């Protein structure tokens, strides 16, 4: 936790003279000061602080209270003001987002000149302030808005000439020098464009057909958004576009990605009547009916979810895995979960809480009699009462350990136990604080954690000590070798880490290995130097970072033993207009990345895909990888010159690799059951089998695997080879024991320190990982090694310190696009190579990412993605969205762009919304189902009633002023169903079969003959009408002409037309009507056509109409 002290001062009548700072007194502004020196308690002390004592940001406002300029006083490395210009169009919209620029001023004053200053800064060619900063005549991201009150984005540009909007985006070609924006079109669904999926009445399965006839949404019932990324050009047609369809409840119904103008991939989202997501049907599923079966396409491809009566998620199904169960207590906290492998053993994962809802214990609960979710839920619901109350949480016994009264109370093995608030828990006295003064202000903080091994034995304790600001100043922990690790931290006033000292022992009486890390920051908190000291060896500057004037990393220097006079390596970084890295250059490895400016023969890329990678193991580049992609941004071909390497790939509809051809050899053919790889043939052969959790039990090498409860490999065996892994219960790897051809080796992992033991030899520290590489041990003396990496974090060269001013390259590696290594120099011991992940040589080169092992030989994982639900349109086994040149997977759980979108947001925040939306549509999910809803309480109903009243008044006021020309929601108050309607028509009572322009009238009493006549008249005019009679008013046995979702209707007309035309007449006469849902898109109404209906609305009939709902067009 980082604490900063802020003092905000609004200057209204006077100006306080500050140290070298003069905010403009003729402007409105708010100044924020981040104090960096301790002991500053008064305004007079603050005034005289220089920038290294207090960082100040001045936000200037125009007369309407809108921000118009932000000045970071002396924020640049050379202590010049960094300015962010803000301007608005005639409608008050920020249509251009400018890059920050550096002003020659150093006083924090308002910089007149606006966009002229920005353009001048980014186009001038001389001056120290532009070193390492890209030159561009268009230093802004422009947004083109729809010409309507909705202000919807039509185009989103970015800094740089190529990304500026064109008036006619549809005519932009690959050769166009501008116009490559993210474009968005809006509309509604058309005939036969979107299947209408409906959950079966029994909640088991879904269908999109009646008999053999497919059901489609009625045209105009769905909002349609079409997104085209920067690569889209006029001759693509629909290829490369993403269509998203949402219903009136703003729920995503369909996402469709076009591979070409005629070929698309569709992912459907199916909801129940309450709006809860029940099924996700991905592109590989071709049927129009979903039937829940333990095998076949449902098992292999469909995501499925089930809910209890309280709308809590109780069962879920991930493709290729068995059903997973969830069980809750009365506070709706999940207390049990079970996957398919646990079910066979009668085991559950449990969670216990304290009274504040904090997790105090997790572990394994065994009960073979609880064979279903319902039985487990009943067991929790019937947990014995204590003094008339069912225990739902645990308390501390005195101050030591926890009670055992919440479910489950027997058959449990604790894997993780958390302690809060104090240090009186069992074991804390054995790890006392050392050399610090701990705070007693630790309420709500985690003061201790016990984590067992992954078999539930030998728990290891960690104790956390804090200062009075809640910052962790020391952690003391036991390690699995029997020793301890103490890490002591020291911070400066704003909370930046100054020093971190680690003291490691492998046994209580063993020698202490001490590693001291010291950080130095510049005047605004940018990390400059990181120093390292091991035991009694001399301290070195491990790295020094140099920044350009707008704060981007410009240079990183490695290893100095003479206070920074000489370094053994220096790498330079440059960026393009988008903030994407385009060059990393040093004496031992150089890389250039081309996007929209490839060399001859390259495929131009405007959307962040990399067109070419030029590289060399010196300060020049002599090899070139050229890449091509399909319209879904999947890598199709990566071929290099110089160092000859190539991979050519094809994919199935789920993104599984179908064929891979490497170096023009024989193609590898992949065979699948669903997403699970079952066989390889051609250039590589092998077969795979899986367990109920979708984990590979056997692989292409003939290795047989077992897994722990976290789906991590526990053992791997084949003839002549056996490997066993030991983890703690959180998944951290503690030990690997491998026997290969009769020789046994053991490697122990303790938070970045690795011990190695071969045969009967003693176990000794082999390496200690650092921020820039590792320290290699030789008889107690540690030698510094540095990893030189490319843009993906792949280690391309390992540099060993040889003298105080020189280093030698002891390892060199190049890589195929999907990560297969091509070693050039291999004299080093570093096994952390592709993406910086450890190679498991005994397992055929699998890479350990933490959550899963990756096989670069075939370009996919062998275990289901733990976060598969966030990327449902993709195979849970594919790697990095099949775009491994742009994305990495930091921990085996989810891909991430190597050029963070947030980094660009610092300089052009207009891109964030557009790009994040596009990224989520192309790769991830932005349509996660709403949290399960529960029945509204009396207090919630009362609150919604008032909201409804307020809302109706507001809407009616706007009606009378004629201001609304778009869809408006207006519902009556007084009942839970209509209250849910106020919140977005998610009450679950609107039949999905009602189409565009449907009119529904809900009566407060029996319909009279005149009402029926009114409905019939509406029918004759081509309207679609439902009249609902309350069930309680019907005669016994009475039926209706129509039953939809079990609701009886007395009159039904199947004709769809523009019911919206009646709206203005209804709106002007609705003062006695409880509620209306309307669309004011059309107004010309012939009142004589509605006379009977209007009588009912005006209250002149026998009984007022309760609700009128006109579905939007």
Automatic annotation (TrEMBL):
Organism annotation: Sphingobacterium alkalisoli
Record keywords, A-Z: Signal
InterPro entries tied to this protein: CdiA_C, DUF6443, Rhs_assc_core, T6SS_VgrG/RHS
Domain of life per record: Bacteria
Signal peptide: 1-22
Record-annotated tRNA nuclease CdiA C-terminal domain positions: 1039-1111
Domain DUF6443, first and last residues per copy: 41-169
UniProt-recorded name of the protein: RHS repeat-associated core domain-containing protein
């Amino acid at each position: 936790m980082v604490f900063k002290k802020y003092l905000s001062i609004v200057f209204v009548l006077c100006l306080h003279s500050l140290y070298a700072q003069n905010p403009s007194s003729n402007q409105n502004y708010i100044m924020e000061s981040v104090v960096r020196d301790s002991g500053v308690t008064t305004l007079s002390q603050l005034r005289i602080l220089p920038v290294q004592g207090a960082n100040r940001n001045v936000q200037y406002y125009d007369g309407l209270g809108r921000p118009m300029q932000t000045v970071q006083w002396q924020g640049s490395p050379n202590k010049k003001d960094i300015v962010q210009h803000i301007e608005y169009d005639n409608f008050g919209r920020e249509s251009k987002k400018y890059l920050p620029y550096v002003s020659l001023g150093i006083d924090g004053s308002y910089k007149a000149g606006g966009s002229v200053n920005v353009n001048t800064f980014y186009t001038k060619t001389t001056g120290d302030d532009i070193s390492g900063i890209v030159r561009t005549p268009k230093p802004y991201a422009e947004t083109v808005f729809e010409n309507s009150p909705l202000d919807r984005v039509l185009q989103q540009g970015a800094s740089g000439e190529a990304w500026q909007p064109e008036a006619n985006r549809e005519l932009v070609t690959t050769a166009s020098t501008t116009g490559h924006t993210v474009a968005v079109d809006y509309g509604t669904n058309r005939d036969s464009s979107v299947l209408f999926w409906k959950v079966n009445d029994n909640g088991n399965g879904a269908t999109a057909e009646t008999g053999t006839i497919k059901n489609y949404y009625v045209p105009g019932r769905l909002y349609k958004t079409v997104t085209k990324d920067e690569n889209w050009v006029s001759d693509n047609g629909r290829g490369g576009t993403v269509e998203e369809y949402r219903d009136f409840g703003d729920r995503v119904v369909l996402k469709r990605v076009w591979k070409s103008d005629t070929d698309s991939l569709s992912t459907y989202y199916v909801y129940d009547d309450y709006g809860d997501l029940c099924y996700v049907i991905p592109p590989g599923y071709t049927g129009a009916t979903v039937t829940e079966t333990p095998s076949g396409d449902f098992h292999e491809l469909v995501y499925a979810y089930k809910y209890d009566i309280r709308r809590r998620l109780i069962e879920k199904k991930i493709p290729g895995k068995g059903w997973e169960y969830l069980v809750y207590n009365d506070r709706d906290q999940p207390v049990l979960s079970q996957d398919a492998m646990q079910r066979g053993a009668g085991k559950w994962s449990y969670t216990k809480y304290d009274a504040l809802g904090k997790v105090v214990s997790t572990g394994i609960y065994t009960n073979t009699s609880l064979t279903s979710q319902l039985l487990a839920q009943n067991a929790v619901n019937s947990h014995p009462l204590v003094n008339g109350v069912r225990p739902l949480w645990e308390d501390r016994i005195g101050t030591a350990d926890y009670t055992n009264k919440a479910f489950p109370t027997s058959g449990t093995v604790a894997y993780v136990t958390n302690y809060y608030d104090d240090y009186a828990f069992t074991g804390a006295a054995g790890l006392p604080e050392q050399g610090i003064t701990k705070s007693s202000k630790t309420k709500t903080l985690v003061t201790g954690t016990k984590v067992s091994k992954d078999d539930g034995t030998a728990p290891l304790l960690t104790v956390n000590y804090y200062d009075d600001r809640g910052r962790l100043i020391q952690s003391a922990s036991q390690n699995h070798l029997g020793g301890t690790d103490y890490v002591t931290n020291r911070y400066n006033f704003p909370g930046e880490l100054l020093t971190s000292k680690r003291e490691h022992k492998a046994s209580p009486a063993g020698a202490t290995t001490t590693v001291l890390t010291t950080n130095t920051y510049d005047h605004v908190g940018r990390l400059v130097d990181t120093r390292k000291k091991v035991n009694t060896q001399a301290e070195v500057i491990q790295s020094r970072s140099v920044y350009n004037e707008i704060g981007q990393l410009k240079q990183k220097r490695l290893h100095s033993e003479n206070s920074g006079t000489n370094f053994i390596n220096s790498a330079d970084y440059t960026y393009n207009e988008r903030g994407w890295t385009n060059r990393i250059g040093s004496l031992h490895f150089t890389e250039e990345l081309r996007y929209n400016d490839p060399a001859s023969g390259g495929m131009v890329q405007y959307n962040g895909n990399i067109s070419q990678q030029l590289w060399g193991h010196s300060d020049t580049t002599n090899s070139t990888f050229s890449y091509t992609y399909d319209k879904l941004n999947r890598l199709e071909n990566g071929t290099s010159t110089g160092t000859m390497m190539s991979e050519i790939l094809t994919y199935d509809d789920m993104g599984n690799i179908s064929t891979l051809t490497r170096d023009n050899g024989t193609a590898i053919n992949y065979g699948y059951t669903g997403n699970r790889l079952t066989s390889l043939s051609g250039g590589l052969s092998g077969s795979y089998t899986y367990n109920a959790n979708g984990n590979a039990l056997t692989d292409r090498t003939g290795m047989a695997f077992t897994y722990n409860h976290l789906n991590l490999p526990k053992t791997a065996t084949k003839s002549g080879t056996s490997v066993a892994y030991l983890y703690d219960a959180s998944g951290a790897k503690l030990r690997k024991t491998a026997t290969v051809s009769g020789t046994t080796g053991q490697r122990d992992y303790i938070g970045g320190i690795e011990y190695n033991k071969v045969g009967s030899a003693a176990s000794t520290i082999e390496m200690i990982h650092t921020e820039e590489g590792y320290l290699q041990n030789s008889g107690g003396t540690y030698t510094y090694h540095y990893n030189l990496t490319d843009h993906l974090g792949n280690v391309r060269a390992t540099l060993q310190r040889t003298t105080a001013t020189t280093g030698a390259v002891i390892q060199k590696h190049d890589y195929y696009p999907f990560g297969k290594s091509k070693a050039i120099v291999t004299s080093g011991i570093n096994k952390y190579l592709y993406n910086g992940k450890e190679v498991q040589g005994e397992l055929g080169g699998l890479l350990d990412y933490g959550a899963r092992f990756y096989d670069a030989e075939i370009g996919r994982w062998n275990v289901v993605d733990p976060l598969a639900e966030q990327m449902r349109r993709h195979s849970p086994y594919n790697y990095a969205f099949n775009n491994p040149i742009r994305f990495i997977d930091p921990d085996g759980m989810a891909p991430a762009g190597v050029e963070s979108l947030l980094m660009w947001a610092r300089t052009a925040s207009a891109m964030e919304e557009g790009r994040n939306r596009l990224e989520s549509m192309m790769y991830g999910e932005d349509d996660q189902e709403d949290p399960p809803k529960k029945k509204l309480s009396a207090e919630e109903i009362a609150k919604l009633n008032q909201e409804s009243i307020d809302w109706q008044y507001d809407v009616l006021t706007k009606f009378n002023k004629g201001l609304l020309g778009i869809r408006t929601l207006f519902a009556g108050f007084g009942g839970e169903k209509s209250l849910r309607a106020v919140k977005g028509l998610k009450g679950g009572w609107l039949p999905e079969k009602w189409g565009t322009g449907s009119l529904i009238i809900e009566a407060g009493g029996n319909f009279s003959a005149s009402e029926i006549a009114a409905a019939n008249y509406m029918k004759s005019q081509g309207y679609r009408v439902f009249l609902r009679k309350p069930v309680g008013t019907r005669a016994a046995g009475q039926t209706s002409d129509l039953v939809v979702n079990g609701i009886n209707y007395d009159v039904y007309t199947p004709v769809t037309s523009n019911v919206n035309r009646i709206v203005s007449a209804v709106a002007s006469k609705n003062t006695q009507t409880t509620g209306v849902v309307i669309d004011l898109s059309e107004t010309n109404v012939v009142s004589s056509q509605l006379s009977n209906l209007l009588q009912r609305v005006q209250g002149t009939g026998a009984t007022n109409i309760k609700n009128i709902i006109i579905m939007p067009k």
